[in-house]
């Protein structure tokens, strides 16, 4: 009986496997020793983490002592079972032994050797002998350029130059190479000898799916010369696929570039498809439809995907649906499904199957045969340095094989190496199972057993349900909009149109649940275009302030006695309403507060988080607690609201902070008088409306816009106010505290919660990953023009990293786009008002007198667009710790870089200011991280990430020293500030009889 397709697939897979398993490296070969390193990593999860981290930091260790220190920190501590050879190395490199330098250099050589296993050379010239050797052995290549993350346009330009140089250099060398039919000819004709793979993220530093069109345009501008060179030299060019967030961008770049006249007949262009993506089949359908419509051919490389860990971690952190399969056989099954479709599409596709998995390869080989395609109608591709025995077996079958061959320096190559290490040592890896676990051939060749996920329609957006006050479930952060998804981009644009089309409206005050008009009104303008009046609100004076206090006091008894669950229910309903209107609220923030779309959306999400979090917190705190357990006595500990709360909010998180402070007071049972910030009253109007719609009774939320200090002062001193919650500058905060002491409430001492300023620093260690340090400094210092109390305004860099860091930071700063926040390409929008602009500019002038200006963007010719309040980001270097710009809060896009000789000095500088709000450390030394955790005394310390963007609960936010008096917003102690604890003790014994404990009610 003839064998079935499945039997033939398994037979092919077995044949490849059999041949490959005979070809094991000898015990003494370099491959064997490096293979042993991987075996250690595979044997022990903890050791694997440390090895990955050590490989990552290794290129940044410039001296023997640094290497020795890091080796010890990574491997010589409890919990890591370092292999004997490694322990030997550690003990020697650290000691005074004469062989110490030798041991250091052995480890260095080993790691370099390890890297060289995956990298063919430093550059084109260096790689040529290895590439020629590959061809001589019957293997083609596609070159990949390793590099640092592109953080500036100078770096993007350098990549472009490298790609162009490689094409020229390789074309010249390749012309002299002898013809090799296996790699130079395909079923459709001759093949190019030079084949280059490109990453679009290397070519544009500001690439971001939030600016989809702008990113496509910018990448294409950089790609055009490369594609022209490809045509001129007859080279093949393939666009790699990277993280999911760039998937749609890459596809759009590919198809739209090739639609341009000059590239219409270039048929050596290719793209990658990642089978681990749940909707990879739709990508393939789209590409095929495009090619057929254009009557053109293109190369398609099918891979499984190299960012599996990254994608799953990011999705979990963001609360997004995971874009990749999570059951390995589903990925394999998708690979097999796409393989067939690709081979059935030979009219438009030149297929390449990139895998080291013999089952996956066998499916391609057998399907091609079954469809009557010649063996050279497709090719097999593998990574340089991986699965060599499988390569030999595939070549032995006369099939065309191409290696993906990275070129580059060791340092920039580390991200690539870490990915390869992860891949090689993952439990699910085919190579691991084949060559390390020694899985039986019968198992390895079986068809993938898919889960229910396979074939199910992938979820595109997170699903969030309204909380039920009876059973709200655990708190989770509202997922941010994922702008890699078209629907999120479109929803925001539609919201922006909707808000704009509403035109300018006027809103009254709300006092005691009623509209109150006044003679005066306050206009709200767009800081990017101050001539545009967005709307206006009535402006309250003393009389209205008095009325607001009276309304709040009248509401107090009823609201105080409303069960906590009902108060929490108001917050949960408001959260649901806010979710429904979220995009429009974000669009309004863009216009009124000058927030870019990502920042504006994040602010709305945080407001929702506060509602959800404080609602749950009040349910927790609202349950009276029994204290003690002696018979005859009943003790209950419970809380009552402090009374009427005055909430004074800033404009920089116009919905989040406003909603956080208001809802905390409200849910605690305190009626509120909301005094919104002068520049952002329209957003405040929306919050008040939503709280009322959610069921906040009349008088519990009173809305009293009143710019300037007069009404604020009056309310702060008012005896009818019991508590003041304030977020803003240190000067105003201190003045409120002092007035509150001097003017107590009618019922006692006024409580003040004051969140004040910061002068936040990031310490950049000598061994820091500068890709991270630069990118995160840019975000922390310049996004929202530095107008966050958490923003970075100082960077303290250890000497060894200083010059490289500054060079890259300066270029990254110069690459930022300044403009209207509604424009998706804008990274830095305007500052909030003319006064803020003048104040920041005063600090810039001060900076010029006391330090060196290293970067500042000039306004475009004709000035900033729309007459907006723009201030270009400024970087000052050579700043002394005592300088004004190193001590005072600027609240603008100005960053001071200070040099420190060692960690002691860095910590002294970092702690040497009056504030203690946020701080950051970029370091790869466990000991440094440990010490900075203890000694950098700030409210929120962030390690190896930016220092802004705190999330409710996960990064409960707030500082001490002059940064504030009060507990962390979005944290478990916050609501307590709005509550007074009481204890009631009852003697339950009467006439010698005490009822049993369990019969007593709580
Ligand atoms: C020539 C070439 C070019 C490449 N270009 C790219 C590229 O542009 N972009 C890119 O992303 N990758 C690229 N890769 C890398 C490629 O994606 C990985 O090498 C490949 O995923 C390893 O798969 P495998 O079939 O060899 O091994 P296997 O061991 O069969 O598969 C491992 C893969 O399965 C997937 N996986 C692992 N665990 C799970 C799980 N729990 N659930 C679901 N899936 C899981 C992951 O994709 C993982 O890499 C390229 C590889 C080659 C050979």
Label this structure with key terms.
single chain, about 1000 residues, alpha/beta, 33 helices, globular, binds flavin-adenine dinucleotide
Brief overview, please?
This protein is of the alpha/beta class and 1002 residues long. The chain has 33 helices and 33 strands. The strands form 8 sheets. Strands 1-4-5-6-7-8-9-10 form an 8-stranded parallel β-barrel, surrounded by 7 helices. It has a 7-stranded mixed β-sheet with strand order 25-26-27-24-23-29-30, sandwiched between helices.
Structure description:
This protein is globular. It starts with a helix and ends in a 15-residue tail after the last strand. With 1002 residues, the protein is an alpha/beta fold. The longest helix is centred in the middle third of the chain and has 30 residues, at 564-593. It has an 8-stranded parallel beta barrel, surrounded by 7 helices. Strands 25-26-27-24-23-29-30 form a 7-stranded mixed beta sheet, sandwiched between helices. Residues 26-30 have low confidence and may be disordered. Residues 240-241, 272, 274, 276, 301, 303-308, 324-328, 330-331, 354-357, 360, 381-383, 404, 423, 426, 428-430 line the site of flavin-adenine dinucleotide (FAD).
Strand order of the largest sheet: 1-4-5-6-7-8-9-10
Number of strands: 33
Mean pLDDT across residues: 93
Q: Looking at the structure, what is the overall shape?
A: globular
**Tell me about the biggest sheet?**
8 strands, parallel, barrel
End-to-end C-alpha gap: 79 Å
Q: In which range does the helix fraction lie?
A: 40-55%
Count of helical regions: 33
Contiguous low-pLDDT stretches (5 residues minimum) are: 26-30
Rg from alpha-carbon coordinates: 32 Å
Beta-strand percent range: 15-25%
Bound molecules: flavin-adenine dinucleotide
Structural class given helices, strands, pairing?
alpha/beta
């Amino acid at each position: 009986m003839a064998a079935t397709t499945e039997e033939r697939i398994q037979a092919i897979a077995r044949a490849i496997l059999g041949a490959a398993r005979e070809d094991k490296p000898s015990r003494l070969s370099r491959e064997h020793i490096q293979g042993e390193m991987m075996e250690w990593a595979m044997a022990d999860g903890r050791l694997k983490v440390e090895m990955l981290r050590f490989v990552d930091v290794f290129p940044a260790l410039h001296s023997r002592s640094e290497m020795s220190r890091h080796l010890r920190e990574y491997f010589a501590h409890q919990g890591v079972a370092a292999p004997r050879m490694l322990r030997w190395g550690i003990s020697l490199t650290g000691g005074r032994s004469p062989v110490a330098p030798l041991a250091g250099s052995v480890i260095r050589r080993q790691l370099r050797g390890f890297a060289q296993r995956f990298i063919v050379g430093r550059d084109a010239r260096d790689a040529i002998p290895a590439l020629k050797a590959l061809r001589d052995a019957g293997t083609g290549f596609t070159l990949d350029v390793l590099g640092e993350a592109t953080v500036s346009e100078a770096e993007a330009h350098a990549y472009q130059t490298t790609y162009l140089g490689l094409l020229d250099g390789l074309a010249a060398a390749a012309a002299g190479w002898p013809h090799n039919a296996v790699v130079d000819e395909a079923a459709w004709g001759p093949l190019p000898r030079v084949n280059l793979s490109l990453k679009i993220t290397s070519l544009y530093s500001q690439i971001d799916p939030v600016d989809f069109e702008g990113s496509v345009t910018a990448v294409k501008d950089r790609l055009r010369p490369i594609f022209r060179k490809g045509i001129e030299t007859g080279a093949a060019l393939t666009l790699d696929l990277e993280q999911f967030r760039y998937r749609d961008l890459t596809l759009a770049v590919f198809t739209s570039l090739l639609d341009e006249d000059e590239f219409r007949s270039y048929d050596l262009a290719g793209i990658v498809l990642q089978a681990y993506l749940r909707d990879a089949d739709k990508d393939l359908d789209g590409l095929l439809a495009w090619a057929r419509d254009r009557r053109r051919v293109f190369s398609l490389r099918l891979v499984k995907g190299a960012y599996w860990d990254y994608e799953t971690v990011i999705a979990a952190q963001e609360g997004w649906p995971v874009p990749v399969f999570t059951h390995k056989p589903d990925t394999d099954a998708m690979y097999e499904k796409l393989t067939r479709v690709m081979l059935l599409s030979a009219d438009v596709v030149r297929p390449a199957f990139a895998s080291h998995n013999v089952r996956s390869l066998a499916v391609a080989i057998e399907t091609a045969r079954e469809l009557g395609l010649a063996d050279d109608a497709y090719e097999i591709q593998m990574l340089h340095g991986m699965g060599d025995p499988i390569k030999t077996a595939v070549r032995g079958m006369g099939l065309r094989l191409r290696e993906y061959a990275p070129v580059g320096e060791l340092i920039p190559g580390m991200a690539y190496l870490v990915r390869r290490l992860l891949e090689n040592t993952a439990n699910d890896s085919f190579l691991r199972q084949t060559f390390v676990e020694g899985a039986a051939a019968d198992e390895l060749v079986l068809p993938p057993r898919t889960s229910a996920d396979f074939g199910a329609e992938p979820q595109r957006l997170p699903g969030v349900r309204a909380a039920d006050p009876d059973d709200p479930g655990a708190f989770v952060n509202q997922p941010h909009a994922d702008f890699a998804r078209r629907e999120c981009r479109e929803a925001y644009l539609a919201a922006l149109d909707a808000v704009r089309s509403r035109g300018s409206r006027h809103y009254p005050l709300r006092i005691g649940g009623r509209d109150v008009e006044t003679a005066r009104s306050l206009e709200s303008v767009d800081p990017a275009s101050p001539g545009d009046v967005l709307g206006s609100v009535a402006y309250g004076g003393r009389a209205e302030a008095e009325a607001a206090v009276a309304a709040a006091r009248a509401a107090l008894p009823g609201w105080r006695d409303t069960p906590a669950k009902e108060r929490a229910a108001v917050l949960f309903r408001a959260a649901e309403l806010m979710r429904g209107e979220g995009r429009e609220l974000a669009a309004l923030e863009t216009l009124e507060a000058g927030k870019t779309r990502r920042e504006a959306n994040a602010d709305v999400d945080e407001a929702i988080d506060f509602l959800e979090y404080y609602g749950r917190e009040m349910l927790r705190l609202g349950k009276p607690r029994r204290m003690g357990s002696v018979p005859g006595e009943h003790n209950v500990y419970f809380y009552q609201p402090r009374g009427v709360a005055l909430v004074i909010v800033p404009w920089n998180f116009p919905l989040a902070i406003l909603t956080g402070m208001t809802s905390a007071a409200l849910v605690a049972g305190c009626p509120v008088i909301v005094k919104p910030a002068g520049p952002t009253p329209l957003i405040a109007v929306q919050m008040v409306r939503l709280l009322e719609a959610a069921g906040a009774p009349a008088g519990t939320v009173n809305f009293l816009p009143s710019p300037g200090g007069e009404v604020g002062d009056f309310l702060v001193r008012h005896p009818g106010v019991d508590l003041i919650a304030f977020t803003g500058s240190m000067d105003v905060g201190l003045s409120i505290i002092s007035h509150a002491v001097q003017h107590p409430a009618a019922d006692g001492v006024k409580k003040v919660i004051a969140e004040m300023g910061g002068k936040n620093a990031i310490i950049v260690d000598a061994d820091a990953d500068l890709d991270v340090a630069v990118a995160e400094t840019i975000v922390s210092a310049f996004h929202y023009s530095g107008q966050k109390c958490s923003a970075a305004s100082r960077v303290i860099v250890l000497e060894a990293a200083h010059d490289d860091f500054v060079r890259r930071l300066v270029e990254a700063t110069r690459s930022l786009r300044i403009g209207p926040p509604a424009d998706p390409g804008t990274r830095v929008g305007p500052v909030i008002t003319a006064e803020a602009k003048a104040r920041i500019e005063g600090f810039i002038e001060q900076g010029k007198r006391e330090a060196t200006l290293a970067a500042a963007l000039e306004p475009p010719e004709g000035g900033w667009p729309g007459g907006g309040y723009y201030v270009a980001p400024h970087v000052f270097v050579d700043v002394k710790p005592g300088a004004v710009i190193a001590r005072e809060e600027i609240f603008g896009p100005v960053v001071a870089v200070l040099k420190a000789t060692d960690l002691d000095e860095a910590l002294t500088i970092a702690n040497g200011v009056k504030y203690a709000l946020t701080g950051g450390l970029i370091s790869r030394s466990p000991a440094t991280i440990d010490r900075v955790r203890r000694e950098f005394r700030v409210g929120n310390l962030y390690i190896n990430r930016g220092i802004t963007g705190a999330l409710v609960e996960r990064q409960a936010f707030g500082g001490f020293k002059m940064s504030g008096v009060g507990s962390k917003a979005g944290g478990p102690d916050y609501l307590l500030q709005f509550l007074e604890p009481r204890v009631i003790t009852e003697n339950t014994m009467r006439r010698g009889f005490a009822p049993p404990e369990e019969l007593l009610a709580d």
